[in-house]
């Protein structure tokens, strides 16, 4: 069976549309969401599209003072992002954040027993972009 140029073009446009929509979904996810103050656990999460032919992804930082375990954060965030089925999540590790908003200081350190040590350099760069006046 021979595939026509029109059918190939239609397949290409469908794939392009899928990639554009996935990129838009990823762009709408805040890269950082952390508690405003205190010492708390954080996780670094890779979010990627589940669409065939689309390998786009982003890494996000989530850290909350209410969490007793790193898994509490990951499970909540992953469940919310994966709800529609278009996105999938992978925990890349964890650690702790000491956030002092009054002194404009953020310190990233430590590790997660369950997920291992996150790449603190990646987390720090994302935190610097979100909080440019902090040290």
UniProtKB/TrEMBL annotation:
Keyword Amino-acid biosynthesis belongs to the record: no
Group of enzyme by EC: hydrolase
A cellular component annotation (GO) from this entry: cytosol
Domain of life according to the entry: Eukaryota
Listed InterPro entries: Janus, Janus_sf
Signal peptide annotation: 1-22
Its biological purpose: Exhibits phosphohistidine phosphatase activity.
Subunit field text: Monomer.
PANTHER family reported for this sequence: 14 KDA PHOSPHOHISTIDINE PHOSPHATASE (PTHR12258:SF10), JANUS-A/JANUS-B (PTHR12258)
Protein family according to the UniProt entry: Belongs to the janus family.
Name used for this protein in its record: 14 kDa phosphohistidine phosphatase
Organism of derivation: Anguilla anguilla
């Amino acid at each position: 069976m021979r595939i026509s140029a029109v059918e190939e073009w239609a397949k290409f446009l469908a794939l392009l549309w899928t990639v554009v929509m996935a990129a838009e979904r990823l762009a709408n996810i805040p890269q950082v969401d952390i508690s405003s103050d205190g010492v708390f656990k954080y996780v670094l999460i890779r979010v990627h599209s589940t669409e065939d032919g689309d390998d786009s992804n982003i890494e996000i930082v989530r850290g909350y003072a209410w969490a007793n375990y790193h898994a509490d954060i990951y499970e909540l965030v992953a469940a919310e992002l994966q709800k529609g089925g278009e996105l999938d999540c992978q925990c890349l590790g964890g650690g702790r954040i000491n956030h002092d908003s009054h002194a404009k200081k953020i310190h990233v350190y430590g590790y997660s027993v369950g997920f291992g040590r996150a790449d603190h350099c990646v987390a720090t760069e994302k935190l610097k972009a979100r909080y440019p006046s902090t040290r």
